[in-house]
Design brief:
By secondary structure, this protein is mostly helical. The protein is about 80% helix and about 0% strand. The chain has one domain. Helix 4 packs across helix 5. Keywords: Membrane, Transmembrane, Transmembrane helix.
Length: about 140
């Protein structure tokens, strides 16, 4: 019973923290996509795409951390891992695909893949900047 409650609690916190992170990144992506597309994009779908991408990204990074055995601080060894760097490249490709597939413009056309790449690049730059300033 304790294992089941622990699993449910972990899943709830995973979704909660992903939602908080996705909201911040959705605001950032929405601004970048409005600028890159020169047309309004749907914010609700931007949030959904960022939420899906955040959930998948957290799973990828957690799997790498468990595989590498670096689940507790300090995370310097994990950040220097070539496997994590490869996983982050895969995560960015997943982000581009999810943003491109899920976010429409107001005129019901899909956003361009180049705009999705730009949004992912800006979000990753902000995330790396925040991660390096905290470390």
């Amino acid at each position: 019973m304790t294992t089941l409650l622990t699993l449910i609690s972990t899943l709830l916190w995973w979704v909660l923290y992903s939602s908080i992170g996705a909201l911040f990144f959705a605001l950032l992506a929405w601004s970048v996509l409005r600028w890159a597309e020169r047309c309004p994009v749907v914010f609700n779908r931007t949030y959904l795409a960022c939420l899906v991408w955040t959930l998948i990204g957290l799973l990828i990074v957690a799997a790498v951390a468990v595989h590498e055995g670096h689940t507790k601080p300090p995370y310097a060894l994990l950040l220097a891992s070539p496997l994590l760097r490869s996983a982050l490249v895969v995560d960015m490709l997943v982000g581009v695909f999810v943003l491109w597939r899920l976010i429409p413009r107001i005129d019901a056309h899909r956003i361009r893949p180049a705009s999705a790449c730009m949004a992912v690049a800006v979000m990753m730059a902000v995330a790396f900047g925040a991660a390096t300033s905290l470390a």
